């Protein structure tokens, strides 16, 4: 796999991404840590676990190199890609690392661990509506955050959201819920109540205020790994996030 260059990042995501150093960016292998990592817990939201900056810059660079090579976002109207069935090797390895070397997925025991992935591109100022992942996906969802920082807001989910058969057009209220600051390389897990009883979303705004500090958002990529309950034929879908 070729080195991820600043020109490639600019071509795909624009020039406003958080930087990856040249020295770290030249390391293309997926060199995941082998030591056990303990996640941060959130008392108010059981089942929400976060490994802060668990992925090194080199690993982040490798994941981005794959996304660039896959040409997911060459069309300006495309901001979402989905994999079904067998996942790309780099995605699957991060899932395996999260299960074997962290406590993110301690309550999850299944094979395959994940069989569906969503890759979302958020350009500066974009967000995603508050939602609960549909019931057709099993417990245990892993979110990998790349490039720019952002704030994810968790709110108690309504019964309508919990049991929805499709995603609703709910808006995110900036002053309601629990804010989770996601940085590049963070890996977040939703299990149990955090997965089923709480909605999560990202407000559409260009500046997040974190501990009184204003942080400008750049372009961001997230990789979400899930387990589809029913069997699915291996496939890739490219689309525009609603």
Structural class: alpha+beta
Rg over C-alpha atoms, rounded to the nearest angstrom:
17 Å
Overall morphology? globular
Oligomer: single chain
CATH fold call: Jelly Rolls
Domains, number: 1
- Biggest sheet record: 8 strands, antiparallel
Question: Any guess at the CATH architecture?
Answer: Sandwich
Q: What is the class in the CATH system? A: Mainly Beta
Compute the number of strand runs. Answer: 14
Content of β-strand: 25-35%
Please work out how many helical segments DSSP would assign. 6
Secondary structure elements and pairings:
Blueprint: H1 6-13, H2 22-25, E1 40-41, E2 48-51, H3 57-70, E3 80-84, H4 89-101, E4 116-122, E5 128-131, E6 141-147, E7 150-156, H5 159-162, E8 178-182, E9 187-190, H6 193-196, E10 198-202, E11 207-210, E12 213-216, E13 220-226, E14 235-239
Antiparallel strand pairs: 1-2, 2-9, 3-4, 3-14, 4-13, 5-10, 6-9, 6-13, 7-8, 7-10, 11-12
